Amino acid sequence: MGRLTGLVALVTGAGGGEMGGGGAGIARVLAREGAIVAVNDLHEDYARATVDQITRNGGQSFALAGDVSDPRQANELVSSVIARCGRLDILVNDAARLGRTPAVERMSDEEWHSYIAVNLSGPFYMSRAAIPHMMQREYGRIINIASLAALRASLNGGAGYTSSKRGLLGLTRQLAAEFYTYNITVNAVLPAGILSGRLRAEMGEHAEALVATRRWALPDDIGQICAYLASPEAHLISASVIVVPGVNATGLGDFAQYRAMARQIGKDIGE
Predict the structure, then answer these.
(1) Where would you tag: which of 29, 35, 128, 188 has the fewest CB atoms within 10 A of its CB?
(2) DSSP 126-149
(3) Rounded distance, CA 266 to CA 151, Å?
(4) Which domains does the chain have, with CATH numbers?
């Protein structure tokens, strides 16, 4: 009996299975904790890779293809879960546009709007569709996967990524304020970096070093955080912005490296 037994979750952008990123890790952990997990991604085959991984390990899961940036499809995704399971208790908005984009002076209108559509409008559409069902049952957990870029800046995603993820924090706090009286909590998780299975395979030993020094999180690490936020015992936590992982999240970087550099220049920082 896991902490989420009897609950139903929908995780967007959760495809890829072993090669997937944070969404796949979140889906895996929620299933291990006993939830029935609907795995969404743009393509059913990609979603099914995570579903197959979950079911092979004894979990309950099913695939749902759909584009969260389309309000009609967002409504259909939620309706499909309700039709199949009779309820929706947990929504994790993980689907996001990623990748390198040019600097602002070279960014096209299409690129800008695509970031806002997926990273900000998508969570809005999905939450808007899910909340009425959660209100009826007086239980709901919405978890928005943002990024450390929301508090700083993004070297890869650029202005579109940073702005959309910052907007997601505003959406998180507004939803939390409006629906807490219905026992619906809304929180944001801000990874500093997630080492997807694909990246880990490509990077080899360098990837293992990033994991060992806690510079990047593994997908299931994010899942563990989400599993607690999704649980009944986290009912007092709402409107929170949770930054992970450790070294990159401090704003200071690796203090051991800072201390070594300080010694080289003769700065007294104590021991």
Answers:
(1) 128
(2) HHHHHHHHHHHHT-EEEEEE--GG
(3) 32
(4) 8-264 (3.40.50.720)
Q: Supply 250's token pair.
A: 């401090």
3-state secondary structure of 41: strand
Q: What is the mean pLDDT of the chain?
A: 89
CA 124 to chain centre: 14
* Catalytic residue IDs: 161
- Write b or e for each residue in 151-165: b if 16 or more Cβ atoms lie within 10 A of its Cβ, otherwise e: beebeebbbbbbbbb
User: What pTM was estimated for this model as a whole?
Assistant: 0.89
How does residue 268 score in pLDDT terms, banded at 50, 70 and 90?
A: low
Q: To which residue do tokens 């939450």 refer?
A: 127
* 124 to 35, 66, 228, 236: CA distances (angstroms): 23, 15, 22, 22
Q: Cα–Cα distance between 14 and 95 in angstroms, integer?
A: 7
What average pLDDT does this structure show over 126-151? 96
